[in-house]
Write a structure and sequence with these properties.
CATH class: Alpha Beta
Radius of gyration: 16 Å
Largest sheet: 6 strands, mixed
Number of helices: 5
Number of domains: 1
Distance between the termini: 37 Å
Mean pLDDT: 83
Number of strands: 6
Order of helices and strands: HHHHEEHEEEE
Shape: globular
Oligomer: single chain
CATH topology: Nuclear Transport Factor 2, Chain: A
Structural class: alpha+beta
Strand content: 25-35%
């Protein structure tokens, strides 16, 4: 029952976060912020963090994260169910363990499409949701094929965007409707 409630809440949060912001709200939030420059910087961090993850480059991967106890990741996928990781120490340890268990770099896994980007940028915090489409590359431990509904909360640390929260819901391969 707790899992079903969690998934329902996660689904509602993801759905509501994916709704587009009204143009007037977007204009207000970005009046003093160079939105396009911040967007480019944030999307570069997301792409670089993903590439480092799939390349199994722990140090590069870790450089894109806030290293604090409030860091969180929450996600769901069919093979593993619900995953909740609390704090940098646990996130760091789990990722290092996954990389050691599956050390062969998988650079093709970072060949993903990101669409339906919904981004809000403030002075030192940003959040975004997007749909990510990945291919099945055969890496059973770290692969994310199909559509994944993604959420990121970013913070500026010493002038650089870093990841503080990752949420994902891997729906998997989508049926061919053509």
């Amino acid at each position: 029952m707790k899992t079903a409630t969690f998934l329902l809440l996660l689904g509602i949060l993801t759905w509501s976060a994916c709704q587009p912001s009204p143009p007037e709200a977007q204009a207000q939030q970005t009046a003093a912020i160079d939105f396009e420059a911040e967007k480019a910087a944030i999307l570069e961090v997301i792409a670089a963090e993903s590439a480092a993850f799939w390349d199994k480059d722990y140090d590069a991967w870790a450089s894109h994260w806030v290293h604090a106890p409030y860091v969180r990741t929450m996600g769901w996928w069919q093979d593993g169910g619900v995953t909740v990781v609390e704090g940098w120490d646990e996130r760091s340890t789990r990722t290092r363990d996954h990389m050691e268990a599956s050390p062969e770099p998988n650079p093709t896994a970072s060949n993903v499409r990101r669409e339906n980007i919904n981004l809000r940028v403030f002075e030192d915090v940003a959040w975004l949701t997007f749909d990510q489409y990945g291919e099945d590359t055969g890496d059973a431990l770290m692969d994310m094929p199909g559509r994944s509904r993604e959420t990121r909360i970013m913070e500026k640390v010493d002038g650089q965007w870093k990841i503080a929260y990752v949420g994902w819901l891997l729906e998997g391969p989508q049926p061919n409707t053509e």
